[in-house]
Design goal:
This protein is mainly β and 151 residues long. 4% of the residues lie in helices and 33% in strands. The chain is built from 1 helix and 11 strands. The strands form 3 sheets. It has a 5-stranded antiparallel β-sheet with strand order 4-9-8-7-6, with no helix packed on it. A 3-stranded antiparallel β-sheet has the order 1-2-5, with no helix packed on it. Strands 3-10-11 form a 3-stranded mixed β-sheet, with no helix packed on it. The longest helix is centred in the N-terminal third of the chain and has 6 residues, at 40-45. It is globular.
Length: 151
């Protein structure tokens, strides 16, 4: 993690698709933490996530509309909007002091802003892997089509 003081990190605004849930956040290391995961849940969810410390996310609207989903060990806490169904953020099992935040919820951001996103090996969780630690399963790559108008 880069040694950047809390006050020097930019504040981002974020929301679910329908705007019911709104939150602000500061990222742990800007967008250098961008990643996906190939565990059973993340494969189906399909979101690109970035990292924020637990204390660096503040829900300003719609906290009562956040729905919690937990599975398997029940350690990770996945939150999504009960109105539009969009995954907003989750408290990580691998790093319980952090949230993974859906980059698409951050104002002005898209998962397609990244040419390459590492995909963490999650079919065997790092906490369940002999020796622990994360491993890269592969990369998602995006290249825009120059023949399609970008409006």
């Amino acid at each position: 993690m880069t040694d950047v003081s809390h006050s020097e990190r930019p504040m981002y605004e974020a929301a679910c698709h329908c705007g019911t849930v709104r939150f602000s956040l500061q990222l742990t290391d800007e967008f250098r933490t961008v990643r996906r995961c190939n565990c059973s849940y993340c494969r189906m969810r399909g979101a690109v996530a970035v990292s924020a410390n637990l204390e660096d996310i503040r829900v300003s609207q719609g906290e009562e509309s956040l729905t919690l989903y937990q599975f398997n060990t029940g350690e990770a806490k996945h939150y999504f909007c009960s109105k539009c169904g969009i995954y907003t953020f989750h408290q990580r099992r691998s790093s319980p002091n952090q949230y993974g935040v859906n980059v698409a919820c951050i104002e002005g951001m898209s998962p397609f802003d990244f040419n390459e996103v590492p995909v963490n090996e999650g079919t065997t969780h790092p906490k369940d892997r002999i020796g622990g630690g994360s491993a890269i399963a592969g990369w998602l790559r995006y290249e825009s089509n120059p023949d399609v108008s970008q409006h």
